[in-house]
Amino acid sequence: MDVLLPHQELTPYIRAYLHREIDLSGGDIDPFHFCLPTHKKFIMLYIGSSIKVTFAEGKTEDKKGMVVVGPLSKPVKVDFGQKHRFVAIELQNTGQYYLLDGCPIHTIMDCNIDADIIFGNKVNELTEKIKETHCPQQIKNELDLFFINHLKKVNKFHESTDLLLNNLPEGKNISELASMANISNRQLERRFKDKIGMSPRFYAKLRRFANAYNLKENNANMSWTEIAHTSGYFDQMHLIRDFRFFSGQNPRFISEILKTQVQGYTEYNIPN
Fold first, then answer.
1. Crossing angle of helices 185-195 and 200-218, rounded to 10°
2. Measured between alpha carbons, how far is 242 from 161 in angstroms, rounded to an integer?
3. What backbone torsions phi and psi does residue 79 show, to the nearest 5 degrees?
4. What pLDDT score does 272 carry?
C-alpha cells in the first residue's frame, strides 16, 4: 500500500491517500472485506472493474469510480473480486462536511453516494488519469489538484471548534469537550451531528469499538481480554456487548472472519 500525504492546503480536510492493489488469484484468501462500523470517514476511488457492496439489511449495490462513503454504523460486505485497485481518501473528522459544501453528515449515515453527484463530470476525468499511472507521486498530484480545485467552489468558513473536532482526545465526556471548545453542551451536540454525523457519546463508543477491532486485525495472537483492557473497556463483557451492537456478532466470530479475508483494507501508519 502507498500512503500519500496531501498538499498542505488540503490537510484541514484530508488525512491521507491510500493507494492499494490487490491480487488474490491462485490464493486461499476470500475476495471480500467485512467492513465493520468505524469513526473514520472515506471517499473511495475504485479503479477498473466495479465492486459489490452488500449492506446490513441485505441490499446489494455495484459501485465503480469515486464513491462518498457516509459514516458507517452498520457492517457492510465489500466484494472486490480477484484483482482490484483502489485509492481510499481518508478524511479529517470535519473534512466530509466541507467537501460536501456543508451537507449535514448525519443525513448520509450508512450511505454510499456516487461522487459525480457532488463533484460533477471531473470525477470521470480523475479516474481515467489515475487508471493510466501507477506512480505514487503522480497519483498524489492528480488528487491534490482535483480537491484543491473543488474547494475553490465551496464555503470553507471554519469554526473555532473544528480543530478540536479533528483532534478529539479520548476519555473526555461531553461537558469536558464543550468546556474545551468554550461552547454549551447543546451547541457541541449539534456540531457533532452536522459535521461528524453522530453524537459525541456515540462517536466515543464507535471509536473505542473500531480501535479494538483494528488491534485484533493487526495482532491476531492478542487475546480479547488484552484488547479490551488496551482499548479502554472496563472488562471483556463490555467489549462483547459493543461487538454485538455494532457487528451483530461476538468477537470469536470476528476472529474467524479475519483469518479468511483481506487484511488491513484501509489501515496504515502515517510516514515520517
1. 50
2. 29
3. -105, 110
4. 42
The full set of domain ranges for the chain reads 2-151, 162-195, 202-258
Q: What is the model's pTM?
A: 0.90
Q: Tally Cβ neighbours within 10 Å of residue 270.
A: 8
Q: Which CATH number fits domain 202-258: 3.30.70, 1.10.3210, 1.10.443, 1.10.10?
A: 1.10.10
Q: What is the pLDDT of residue 270?
A: 54
End-to-end CA distance of the chain: 16
Q: Provide the grid cell at 76.
A: 457492510
- Taking only the tens place, the pLDDT of each residue in 160-177 is 889 899 999 988 999 999
- 182 grid coordinates: 468554550
**Of 197, 231, 202, 205, which Cα lies nearest the Cα of 216?**
231
Q: What are 91's three cell numbers?
A: 478524511
Closest by Cα among 20, 123, 5, 129 to 67: 123
3-state SS assignment for residue 30: strand
> With 0-12 CB in 10 A as exposed, 13-18 as middle and 19+ as buried, what is 221?
exposed
Residue 28's pLDDT is: 65
Q: How far is CA 133 from CA 19, 28, 67, 147, 209, in A?
A: 12, 29, 20, 18, 37
CA distances from 59 to 52, 54, 69, 197, 248 (A): 10, 6, 16, 22, 17
Whether CATH 2.40.30.160 fits 2-151:
no
User: What type of residue sits at position 3?
Assistant: V
C-alpha cell read off for 272: 515520517
Q: Which three cell numbers stand for residue 235?
A: 472488562
Mean pLDDT over residues 66-72, rounded? 93
Please tell me the distance from the alpha carbon of residue 169 to that of residue 132, in angstroms, as a whole number: 41
The yes-or-no answer to whether 2-151 and 202-258 have a common fold is no
